[in-house]
Amino acid sequence: MERNYNFCAGPSTLPEAVLKQAQAEFLNWHGLGASVMEISHRSKDFEAIMVQSEQKIRSLLNIPENYKIIFQQGGAYAQFSMIPLNLLGNQTKVDAIDTGNWSNKAMKAMAKYAEINVLATAKDTLPEEGSLKFSKDAAFVHYCDNETISGVEFDYAVQSEYAPTVVDMSSNILSREFDVSKFGLIYAGAQKNIGPSGITVVIVREDLLGKANPMTPDVFNYELQSKNISMVNTPPTFSMYMIDLVLTWLQNQGGVSAIEKINNEKAAMIYNIIDSSDFYRNPVTKNARSRMNIPFTIVNPELDPIFLAQAKEHGLINLEGYRAVGGMRASIYNGLPLEGVKVLCEFMSDFEKKYG
Ligand SMILES: Cc1ncc(COP(=O)(O)O)c(C=O)c1O
What we know:
Aspartate Aminotransferase, domain 1; 3-stranded antiparallel beta sheet; 14 strands; alpha/beta
């Protein structure tokens, strides 16, 4: 069966080469006569996956030595609570920016543990760089680098003069180069650019460890996990194996700088179609537009279901907007090939000619 071009926001399309390799190795991994899912996580073969994945992320993102890389279960959502539990120490305040659904959900979860000082609320745009008034007594500053639903992505790193920055990069990590040293903690759910769901990558500066609330579960204690190659308990072994394959695939593409060029090209193609027409719209301010998630509407919303149905016939699937938002959304993560975006753009132009 032909594979479709899959624009799902998450869990999302994985590189075909990775899926094929997993398929080929499914029954008999590394000549063990067993699947990678069927062996002990304490075996040397499996441990190598944990160690190598960490090394690959370190080299792909150029992560300095004073940062630990941890693989956590429970999704990015769990981190909304685990971050304050691990980082607050005896402090009580968090500075937070609200740019949409995910940063808002994080703020609400963190409010169970700390007083939240909202630095800025922005919709379809970003707070102006340099305009934020940070608290002197916050334990950290939190924001979401890429709002997956509304398609708002920061074009600068938020940095307070008083506290480390904690950033949710679930939907744009590994899509572009950035300076890790500007952040105290970076976290990202795997199911967009890293692999299948079930794992969240946490990259944390060493000096922020050692402050975990005694009530923090061991499996969510960053310090404990960093000392145990993220295996205080059994990790989701198949997801970890897939992550390792995706990271190798990314290295083979030329790494993050190479994929960044392709990602920029993909996003520019779709925004060009939207901007050069009165038929499609994207409400996000230009400097805040996401290169990963592009929501758009058609002037006449009655055309939405027709667009989606015809797109599907062209092998372009999962273009529906977020369920509470409607319209369309094209999520174009690392694994979605340039060719898929070309096909989408041709389809969008033809659809406009027909119905515009
Ligand atoms: C930016 C962002 N943060 C957090 C989450 C929550 O992740 P999870 O469902 O893995 O807990 C998502 C999910 O899509 C997301 O896009």
